[in-house]
Design goal:
single chain; alpha/beta; 442 residues; 14 helices; Protein-Tyrosine Phosphatase, Chain A; 3 domains; 9-stranded mixed beta sheet; UDP-N-acetylmuramoyl-L-alanine:D-glutamate ligase
Length: 442
């Protein structure tokens, strides 16, 4: 079999190794003409790496490659996408264990990690992979029927997804990646693919306070389990699934713990907690003790409202993963203290009205504006009468210095940009790591 690996990064490397071990003839197709490839593979590199793909028996798409680009590069073969698969599709086809698939706009990594830790602490053999960093094809040979696999699944992975998880989790959904998708509805449709093929034995956990999540989850034929975290001092109307009432977290009528027992910061993280509880409840037979231990011990993931240090009675937090307005709104709400917030970056075509509204009505001492979207933020803020604005500069040293100069004792400095990082930084990890490095050097 002649297999073409379309895109040779993390997932492409994993896919190449996987199909090579299965005896396939591997060709690496990538736009990087200077790419180093393994000895067992042939190369098809450069700007024309997607043309003449019909010569291969199987095409393995890397998540970041839009399927329409493959079709556009091969107009003489209108059925070329019939040859396309992905590492995720192959894993689902071959995996002997039940899979929990988690998708949404924000919260996927935290929810997946909570599920993983709860199952691990309950004594289950468990694997974690997908968009969270580990390609599942790398560990498929270690998975046994009595294992559980948790996969974080993005729109890039789900756009041509053909299978179904045993348990699917749909977190909050909002417009995202509009620089990749043709329409916002196409983005939402990718999420539906995780649930549409579930049968009556499947389980779908969904955010019942997010209308898009409800709509996406309704495509499942499985058992629907809601979770919901209402605004503070608001009681849930229907007490099913997992939910927050007052200062306590419940699963159906069973109290799990008080919200103060959760180490994760922010009310939005209570949504992730409830989603995780609903997903694992039947698997661990309602083991409350295990759940509470994990909620107490787990303080969060890197670049997600990550505490960096306190200096001169000012606390610095790295929330570089907040690449959407909704994530930044949640981060701002997580702190009662006055805040200096760093906003801006790469323009993905997403409106900023809601995050600007939150800045205006919150106790933001000053907004440090950076990146390509800086002019948009400034225009919107000024229109709303907010003039506590400082340009952050083009380096992280300049950005942190501007934030430090604007802050007062007792404040929080929050890197939570509501935008992607491209332009000033390689990615959100690079942005967050630079922030931590500069802050720790103060």
């Amino acid at each position: 079999m002649n297999v073409a690996i379309l895109g040779y990064a993390v997932d492409g490397i994993s896919a190449a190794n996987y199909w090579h071990k299965k005896g396939a003839n591997i060709s690496i197709c990538d736009q990087n003409a200077d790419l180093e490839i393994p000895e067992y593979a042939t190369a098809k590199l450069g700007s024309e790496y997607l043309i003449n793909l019909d010569q291969f028996d199987l095409l393995v798409r890397t998540p970041g490659l839009f399927p329409g680009d493959i079709l556009a590069a091969n107009p003489e073969n209108p059925n070329i996408l019939d040859k396309v698969t992905t590492g995720i599709n192959e894993f689902f086809a071959q995996c002997p264990a039940p899979i929990i698939g988690v998708t949404g706009t924000k919260g996927k990594g935290t929810t997946c990690t909570l599920i993983y830790k709860i199952l691990e602490n309950a004594g289950k053999k468990v694997f974690l992979g997908g968009n969270i960093g580990n390609s599942p094809l790398d560990f498929i040979s270690d998975v046994t029927p009595d294992s559980w696999v948790i996969l974080e699944l993005s729109n890039f992975q789900l756009i041509d997804f053909k299978y179904a998880p045993k348990i699917g989790v749909c977190l909050m959904l909002a417009p995202e990646h509009q620089d990749w998708h043709e329409t916002v509805e196409q983005y939402y449709d990718t999420k539906k693919n995780l649930f549409a093929n579930q049968n009556q034995d499947g389980i779908t956990v969904y955010n019942s306070l997010n209308e898009i999540s409800k709509r996406v989850a309704s495509t499942s034929r499985g058992h629907l389990i809601p979770y919901f975290v209402p605004e503070e001092n608001v009681s849930p109307e229907i007490k099913t699934g997992s939910y927050v009432e007052g200062e306590s977290i419940f699963m159906q009528e069973t109290k799990i713990c008080d919200t103060k027992d959760v180490t994760l910061l922010g009310r939005h993280n209570l949504e992730n907690v409830c989603a995780a509880i609903a997903a694992v409840w039947q698997i661990i037979d309602g083991d409350i003790e295990t759940i509470v231990k994990v909620l107490h011990d787990f303080s969060g993931m890197e670049h997600r409202i990550e505490f960096v240090r306190e200096l001169d009675n000012i606390k610095y937090y790295n929330d570089s993963f907040a690449t959407t307005p909704e994530a930044t709104i949640a981060a701002i709400k997580a702190f009662d203290q006055p805040k200096v917030v760093i906003l801006g970056g790469h323009d993905k075509g997403i409106p900023f009205f809601d995050v600007v509204d939150e800045v205006v009505r919150s106790n933001i001492r000053r907004a440090i504006i950076i990146g390509d979207t800086g002019e948009k933020f400034i225009e919107l803020l000024v229109k709303r009468g907010f003039d506590k604005i400082t340009l952050g500069g083009n380096t992280m040293t300049e950005i942190v210095e501007a934030a430090k100069n604007a802050a007062e004792p007792g404040d929080v400095i929050l890197l939570s940009t509501a935008c992607a990082s491209f332009g000033l930084f390689k990615n959100y990890k690079d942005r967050g790591n630079q922030f931590k490095e500069v802050v720790n050097s103060l």
